[in-house]
């Protein structure tokens, strides 16, 4: 299902942020969490950060090519993280970002 697909990419909101920090995208992640403007992230930058096999599986389940999947994620992730962090910080207890992305992908 779409939640399982998204779960293959991220281990949760905190995991996504950590992955972005380790992948050189920490400033963008911080902008999504903060109350200011969201910095964009390119599909190519996400592709360098994420596991290629996970992206390929994600794309295959959606019936699109991996580059299109990364383009979709580069558009959706800033908005999703921004909405999940309205107080400018990661919520206590974490949030299952895969569940949120899964719901969005069903629309």
Give structural notes.
With about 110 residues, the chain is mostly helical. About 65% of the residues lie in helices and about 0% in strands. The protein contains 7 helices and no strands. Helix 2 (about 15-20) runs antiparallel to helix 3. The longest helix is centred in the C-terminal third of the chain and has 19 residues, at about 65-85. The protein is globular and about 35 Å long. About 25% of the residues are buried. The mean pLDDT is about 85.
Quick overview:
By secondary structure, this protein is mainly α. Helix content is 65%, strand content 0%. The relative contact order is 0.24.
- The structural class is mainly alpha
Total count of helical runs of at least 4 residues? 7
Hey, roughly how much beta strand do the residues contain?
Answer: under 5%
How does the overall form come out from the CA principal axes?
globular
| Pattern of helices and strands | HHHHHHH
- Quaternary state reads single chain
The proportion of residues forming helix, as a percent range, comes to 55-70%
Give a short account of the largest sheet.
none
DSSP, total strands: 0
Q: How far apart are the termini?
A: 13 Å
Kindly state the mean pLDDT as a whole number? 83
Radius of gyration: 13 Å
Ranges where pLDDT stays below 50 over 5 or more residues in a row are none
